[in-house]
UniProtKB/TrEMBL annotation:
Pfam families: Lipase_GDSL_2
UniProt domain SGNH hydrolase-type esterase: residue ranges: 19-167
Organism, scientific name: Ruicaihuangia caeni
Superkingdom field: Bacteria
Stated name of the protein: GDSL-type esterase/lipase family protein
Alphabetical list of InterPro entries matching this protein: Ester_Hydrolysis_Enzymes, SGNH_hydro, SGNH_hydro_sf
Length: 194
């Protein structure tokens, strides 16, 4: 953007909830042409409804992180979060067949939701390969021994602190590079309805 070739062929759309929206992605990953399509305080169905923005952006890669907002509120089931995130991935793949996909694990939260978040991540990790998405597990970098978000990584209002984003970006940079190691998708994946 802006007349430079920085990030040429490496347009990355960050899609997700408030953790994505609050990120300074262009600053943190300057080798890419970044679009921040995060939606503050969004639940997974709101992210699904925003897919037209991703398609309009025509990125070379999509980084998806959503689900923490759903688990921070009572009432969202693991199945609902997982199925909606799977739908997002399938739709991105269908509508942008050549895009590179990076799915980020649902990040740790508090003790009440730790097991549900872990369960969602187990399902998402298994599903990612079916849409040829790479999966980045942030739990080793962000959680303490009990499965909660490490205290120094907790920001105000349930978000991440600056140190939390630093830990995420340290994992993200090599994951983004790996996205370009293999060829992009060149044809749509057929999704068979059962």
């Amino acid at each position: 953007m802006g007349g430079t070739d920085r990030g040429a062929g490496r347009r990355v759309a960050f899609l997700g909830d408030g953790l994505v929206a609050d990120g300074r992605w262009q600053e943190w990953v300057p080798d890419y042409d970044v679009s921040n399509l995060g939606i503050p305080d969004a639940k997974v169905e709101q992210v699904l409804e925003a897919l037209d923005r991703v398609v309009d952006d025509q990125p070379d890669a999509v980084v998806l992180l959503a689900g923490p907002t759903d688990f921070d509120r009572r009432g969202s089931t693991v199945e609902h979060v997982v199925r909606t995130l799977e739908s997002i991935l399938v739709e991105v793949r269908r509508r942008l067949p050549g895009v590179r996909l990076l799915l980020i694990s649902v990040v740790p939260g508090d003790e009440r939701s730790a097991e549900r978040r872990r369960e969602a991540n187990r399902h998402l990790w298994q599903f990612a390969a079916t849409v040829r998405a790479q999966y980045l597990d942030l739990w080793p970098a962000l959680s303490d021994k009990s499965g909660e978000l490490t205290a120094e990584y907790r920001g105000q209002g349930g978000g991440l602190s600056a140190a939390g984003y630093d830990a995420w970006v340290a994992e993200l940079r090599p994951a983004l590079e790996r996205l370009w190691d293999g060829p992009p998708m060149s044809r749509p994946i057929s999704i068979v309805e059962l």
